[in-house]
Design a protein that fits this description.
Amino acid/polyamine transporter I, 14 helices, globular, mainly alpha, 80% helix
């Protein structure tokens, strides 16, 4: 059980955050990897998995060393007074991702269940708000449990893809070359998604050894990318026409001709949207709660739900005004470069330097996190 909590659970939570805004609909995989071809797309995803693992390992160890388990304290220790730039970009990303999953949830509701898209979006938002209100432990259990279900469904999907369209998949790969641009695509894709790293820090607060933090990070990279790779291979059964689909997952499921599987997949995908939205909003609440703790106050549960509802309401408007394709194509690429510059590069350079030179590099997690966070605040300046 300790192995699960220390090494596997962080990966399951990270995958839960990434998948809803990263590849649940398949549209994100098209945007980043389709141009590289069938083989190049897989190479790009493998690259992303390696980058995921390395950056998460460094990030988890940085959080452990400095006792920084919310994005405010984490970025203050990493970026000093410049941490506000990250918060601005993170909030923009938050609204973008919530808009994307809200739009996708509306499409699923309309296409699969014949209900208005706005109703599907509102249902998604309501379920996220309820889960955010429930607190960290409930969020951990729900996100981890849904991840296991996701692995089961994605495994079944690729088995059926080979069973029904195996000849198409083999032909697609036999005729494809290695592609080009996959290395850049893998780095850019991972750079954008790794901006959610601070959103999963709440799950690693129990780690007290360097090997645990590094091991959890490396495993998380693998856990996050395997479903994406299996999904990409399955999509090659409809190559190249699937590249024009707003929600490629819907086309893939309809080709199987199995009503129960299509319904199950849509329910699971809808759940991944809840996971992603919940984790990102929980990160915002943890940032606000950390500020309250520094002031020796607690953040009431109802305020957590209120913050979630406000941000969700803003995202509903964006989801209704713009389609999922435009949201992904216009928003993700720009933010990717921002996060690579202001977060990933500093973490892999300045962050590693601070870990090495920290006198607390080998110590266990402080037993009084509030005191540690207050000390960090004094060192980094008031928010």
């Amino acid at each position: 059980m300790n192995w699960y909590r220390n090494y596997l659970l962080p990966g399951l939570i990270f995958q839960s955050v990434v998948i809803g805004g990263g590849y649940a609909t398949g549209r994100e995989l098209i945007e980043f990897f389709f141009a590289s071809g069938p083989i190049g797309g897989l190479l790009g995803l493998a690259t992303a998995g390696v980058v995921f693992g390395v950056v998460l390992a460094v990030g988890f160890e940085f959080a452990r060393v400095f006792g920084a388990y919310d994005y405010r304290h984490f970025c203050q220790k990493l970026l000093g007074r410049g941490w506000g730039i990250f918060e601005l970009a993170f909030c923009i990303q938050l609204l973008l991702v919530l808009s994307v999953i809200g739009s996708a949830a509306g499409q699923i509701a309309q296409e699969s269940f014949a209900i208005p898209s706005l109703v599907g979006t509102l249902l998604l938002m309501a379920m996220i708000a309820v889960l955010v209100f429930s607190g960290s432990e409930a969020i951990k259990r729900v996100l981890a449990g849904w991840s296991f279900l996701l692995y089961l469904v994605y495994g079944l999907m690729i088995v059926l893809a080979f069973h029904s369209f195996g000849d198409n998949i083999f032909q697609t790969y036999s005729e494809a070359d290695s592609g080009s641009g996959w290395l850049q695509s893998g780095v850019l894709y991972s750079g954008y998604n790794l901006a959610v790293l601070p959103a999963v820090l709440f799950v690693i607060s129990g780690l007290n050894r360097r090997r645990q933090a590094i091991g959890a990070g490396l495993i998380a990279g693998l856990v996050a990318v395997l479903p994406a790779m299996s999904f990409f291979v399955a999509m090659m059964s409809a190559y190249p026409e699937i590249g024009d689909e707003p929600v490629p997952a819907s086309l893939l499921m309809s080709r199987f001709g199995s009503g129960w599987l299509e319904l199950t997949f849509q329910v699971v995908v809808f759940g991944t949207f809840i996971e992603t939205g919940t984790a990102l909003l929980h990160a915002v609440n943890e940032r606000l709660a950390g500020l309250r703790r520094d002031e020796h106050r607690e953040m009431p549960a109802y305020q957590r739900a209120l913050v979630a509802l406000i941000l969700l309401s803003i995202s509903i408007f964006a989801a209704e005004q713009f389609g999922i394709v435009d949201l992904i194509a216009r928003g993700y690429s720009a933010l990717t470069l921002v996060f690579l510059t202001i977060f990933i590069f500093p973490l892999l350079t300045l962050g590693v330097w601070k870990i090495i030179h920290s006198s607390g590099g080998a110590r266990s997690k402080p037993s009084e996190p509030d005191q540690v966070q207050s000390l960090e605040l004094q060192e980094s300046g008031q928010s």
